[in-house]
Design a protein that fits this description.
Length: 126
């Protein structure tokens, strides 16, 4: 339960982090560069958070679903609220884009954490 709460509160931060990065990079460059950098920052943030929340669990990819959902839930709600004043196409693009970015990072972090834990377990057995 403690890790679920921690992951929920960690999930509140990346949306605002990406907006800060998006605005900062947009002042330096024009076009899609700001969006690409913002997406990379969000994926990296979710990856790192999920990796540290799931490290040491060999079955993290399959058993840490409550943590994964809590990590993405706060950002999803914020994304829905932020996109609610857009057209249907804009809303779907915004929310589905967030879901894609969020869960690529989360699943990647859980996968790497579980592979690392399995590798350590195999080394200890040898």
């Amino acid at each position: 339960m403690k890790r679920v709460l921690i992951s929920f509160f960690l999930g509140l931060f990346p949306f605002y982090l990406s907006m800060f990065v998006l605005e900062t990079v947009a002042t330096i460059t024009a076009g899609y560069a700001a969006i690409i950098v913002s997406v990379i920052v969000m994926i990296a943030y979710y990856f790192i958070c999920q990796f540290f929340l799931s490290r040491g669990h060999p079955d993290a990819l399959f058993k840490d679903w409550p943590i994964m959902l809590a990590l993405g839930a706060a950002g999803l709600v914020i994304s829905i609220v932020e996109a609610s004043n857009k057209s249907l196409e804009g809303f779907l693009t915004w929310v589905l884009g967030f879901l894609l970015v969020c869960f690529v990072g989360i699943l990647g972090g859980a996968f790497v954490a579980s592979r690392q834990a399995r590798g350590k377990a195999e080394q200890q057995l040898s």
